[in-house]
Amino acid sequence: MNVVLLGPPGAGKGTQAERVAKSCGFPHISTGDMLRDAVAKGTELGKLAKGYMEKGELVPDEVIIGIVKERLLEPDAEKGFILDGFPRTLEQAIALENELSALGRKIDFAVNIEVSDEEVVRRISGRRICRSCGRPYHVEFNPPKADGICDVCGGELYRRADDEPEAVRRRLEVYHAQTAPLVDFYGQRGLLVGVDGARPVEEVSSEIENLLNCRKE
Ligand code: AP5
Questions:
Q1: What would the pLDDT profile of 68-111 be if each residue is shown by its tens digit?
Q2: CA 71 to CA 5: how far, in whole Å?
Q3: Relative to the CA of 206, which of 23, 42, 62, 125 has its CA 20 to 30 Å away?
Q4: Per-residue pLDDT tens for 27-60?
Q5: What three-state secondary structure class fits 162?
Q6: Which residue in the list 36, 88, 123, 128 is annotated as catalytic?
Q7: Which DSSP state fits 60?
């Protein structure tokens, strides 16, 4: 099953992708996590991406498309994947369609997690991320068991640089201008499923797992 998760920044794509990937047995491929990892390691990609990310702008299409193409060829993605944060522009969506078609594959579902801009701001302002495994938490809605420490790997929790209010405003503008049109793109192909993301994490996961016909652990 090849799945794309759509939705504004802070909609819960990372939260849901991690849970659903576990119950469905597919890899969770997050372009945001890949870029943050490159920034943390100081690679050439990281140096290029850092400035765009901190301002809330998109990394250039040709850069991100190349990275995703390579990732999709890795063995764990052969039987399926959950893409989180890609595609984000029409050019990326077309490149993904062409790449999959060359491999004799296609997107099965584009799941759009629907959340208002007000909720996005509430969620992002309380978000904390694990520095080691990237798992997202929320100080109020999804707190860790021990303050500042990841439940899964014991890593330190931190606030993303692009979660500052000015960058969040820009990310929302970029989302509405460049990524929201993908809802129509996948709608026209009959692949779009809308999910109300303004509900508890578990309810949203259950709906997506049922849609994908995955067994919960
Ligand atoms: P990326 O990391 O993809 O950021 P994003 O799309 O802005 O999404 P977020 O990670 O902010 O949010 P999310 O939807 O995953 O929500 P989360 O689960 O964390 O990209 C970052 C940057 O990288 C981009 O701005 C760009 O510069 C670059 N980039 C990445 N991909 C790119 C691409 N394809 N092309 C070009 N550039 C690219 O949840 C948010 C918070 O809410 C958490 O605290 C969580 O605990 C909480 N929460 C989640 N669900 C619920 C719920 N149901 N109820 C209450 N709280 C909830």
A1: 999 999 999 998 999 999 999 999 999 999 999 999 999 999 99
A2: 17
A3: 125
A4: 999 999 999 999 999 999 999 999 999 999 999 9
A5: helix
A6: 88
A7: P
Tokens standing for residue 133? 């495994």
194 has which bridge partners? 112
**Spatial distance between the Cα atoms of 10 and 119, rounded to a whole number of angstroms:** 8
Report the DSSP pairing between strands 157-158 and 127-130.
antiparallel
Catalytic residue among 131, 159, 160, 170: 160
CB contact at 8 A, 17 and 199: no
Helix (H, G, I), strand (E, B) or coil at 155: coil
CB 157 within 8 A of CB 149: yes
| Region 122-129 average pLDDT | 93
Burial class (CB in 10 A: 0-12, 13-18, 19+), 54: middle
This model's pTM is above 0.70? yes
**What are 89's two structure tokens?**
């522009």
CA angle, 153 then 154 then 160, to 5°: 90
Pocket probe for ligand 1: among 138, 182, 199, the residue whose CB has the most ligand atoms within 8 Å is 138
Question: Both tokens of residue 126?
Answer: 């309380």
Q: Where are the alpha helices (DSSP H) in the chain?
A: 13-24, 31-41, 44-55, 61-72, 90-102, 117-125, 165-174, 181-188, 201-212
Which among 103, 28, 32 has a CA at the least distance from the CA of 67?
32
Identify any residues that bridge with 127 across adjacent strands, giving them in sequence order.
138
Write the residue with the smallest CA distance to atom 29 of ligand 1. 32
Tokens representing 179?
């990524």
